Amino acid sequence: MSPSDLPERDGAVLAYGAANVGNLHRVLSDAEAHAVLDAAWDAGIRSFDTAPHYGLGLSERRLGAFLRDKPRDQFTVSTKVGRLLRPNPDDEGGLDLDNAFHVRTDLRRVWDFSAAGIAASLDESRERLGLEHIDTLYLHDPEKHDLPQALAEALPALESLRAEGQVDRIGVGSMDAAALAAAVSSATLDEVMVAGRYTLLEQPASAEVLPACRARGTTIVAASVFNSGLLASETPSRDARYEYGGVPDAVWTRLERILEVCRAHGVPLPVAALAFVAREPLVTTVVIGGSRPAQLAQNADSWRAEVPAQFWDDLTRARLIP
Q: Could you tell me the CA-to-CA distances from 270 to 157, 196, 224, 267, 299 in Å, in that order?
């Protein structure tokens, strides 16, 4: 099997989430960012997700530059709306570290869930990406601004853009299970990006989001499946990052129990993390990040790895997964 032959897993494909090439958590040069994207492509990944929020547009610009010489029919791109980027009159040459991005604050994010704002955001993303057509458009983090307005105005605006052929698919991306469930019930969405709420470690999306998606025929894109990197290593550290902070004691105890089952079956934790989310029939895409080329190659290998059925039986019996 060649590196470009990255198979589906239980009907799901592997995608790259491009927040890291927007200088999330650390600075990447243009060359380093290109090398990361090149490693994703060489690993066989053909689906890419970005957003204006990621590095104040840097992620979109770098991803677009990388894809410029790739055949358009060989990849798909999703981006997000809800935050417009506008000149920052208060810029003093600082960095956007409050949002964990190592980029200048010469731009600022302006929430806008109006139909005009949604349309403007799409046009501006097209320009930054250098693409005439965006495959999938998500409303980004609606609960962080105004969820009622999102349901009443932003989602109908997305539906109109899809009806006009401006985008192929629409959805909502969020870390908030209640907001995702409300969005699925309020509009005809193609998919929702569930970030960190359906993972091997925890599945709060199982209560409301998954049932709502089944009822409405909405599929799931699973993101942050490593819980901010906690599940990305075979031997996670107690001082690892979790939800942009430290790991709570209860979460660490649960992880230790999962690790016991992994070791008993010889299943590396990252392999288990990827395979778990792909097992859910609603999940059509699993999004991974990464700021180093080696991480992309390793994740592609983990994606291909086999997991014995007894492993899942033992996790279920221990009430560690549904």
A: 38, 15, 12, 9, 8
Position 273 in a domain: yes
Tokens coding 277: 């989310």
At 203, which CATH number?
A: 3.20.20.100
Counted domains in the chain: 1
Q: Considering just the CA atoms, what is the radius of gyration of the chain in Å? A: 19
Tell me whether residue 242 is one of the annotated catalytic residues: no
DSSP E strand stretches across 28-183: 47-49, 76-81, 83-87, 107-111, 134-140, 167-174
Catalytic residue among 54, 138, 198, 242: 54
Q: What is the pLDDT of residues 182-239, one digit of tens each?
A: 999 999 999 999 999 999 999 999 999 999 999 999 999 999 999 988 999 999 988 8
Q: Which of 232, 192, 225, 227 is nearest to 211 (CA)?
A: 192
Residue that is written with structure tokens 């109908």 in the block: 156
**pTM: predicted TM-score of the whole model, two decimal places:** 0.95
CB 128 within 8 A of CB 62: no
